[in-house]
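Example for reference:
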Amino acid sequence: MNIFDTIAGMGHEQLVLCQDAVSGYRGIIAIHSTTLGPALGGTRFWSYASDEDAIVDALRLARGMTYKNAVAGLNLGGGKSVIIGDNRTADREMLFRAHGRFVESLGGRYITAEDVGTSTADMDFVHMETDYVSGLAGRSGDPSPVTAHGVFRAIQAAAKETWGADSLTGRTVAVQGCGHVGYYLCKELHEAGAKLVVTDIDAERVKRVVADFGARGVDLDAIYAVEADIFAPCALGAVLNDQTIPQLKVEIVAGAANNQLLDEEKHGKALAKKGILYAPDYVANAGGVINVYSELAGWTSERAFRKADEIYDTVLRVFAIAKHDKVGTYLAADRLAEMRIKTVGNMVRTWPQWPNK
């Protein structure tokens, strides 16, 4: 692996490889862009097959955070870190304190938070060594309601684009995944008058949504072939693929899951060929990063929800770009993000900063 060619090709600014022999910590911090502000992205704790796999994952995720933060209208760049190891380990304090020291060494260029394999308790250990961390216990709180609200607004925007009105009364929504975000999304959809068909790997979650919101539960694989208006993936990624897309009987796909398209270009085109409007996942689910930013900016919960409301207009802008440029919505979202990064990057800089550095 030629590291310099790799990071140059993906447009990254910095890649930091870190190790601490005492704690056994082996970490990677990738900073993709700081054009809009400090790079924000969570810490993933995972057992990788190789160091190269860990580096590639960190770089890919960091780049994704740049686009997510940009399209959400936040003053944040994109970064990500990974810790190599077994995330089931119970001995975590020194591991995450070591990680916090390396985050601190970057002087605020990178701000971390929880991600796959990590928790608010882990971030509290990171916080012992640095203030450049978000997602702490007792701060911004559970991000699920804000994330779900953003997805709900994305669904409304897609309804507006498809049917000329954003009312969901009488519309049937097939929701895949009834966890924290899925539950709150079902709540908002129910209150908006939608009919729900739901599934989840956990049968108890399905029972709860059925009892609380009058939903109809179906088997895991049956969700794809449900006769509905909207499909909302809120569980695993890569659920839109060669096997599932031919089964879909909906006009809109908009959900909270990350990386819903197994192959972005191939399966984005496959949805368009079936006449299905796709609200790009990282635009629709941006409420999560908005919630993190609210902690950093000291926003109230109400302000975080107001910011998540803006996802409605953002999704409509994505659709407008897609129509104007005659490209898929997944490409239009990238173009919207790149437009904001370029505009901010080209603004006049009021040099010199000295002596007020």
Observations:
- The domain at 144-340 is CATH 3.40.50.720 (Rossmann fold).
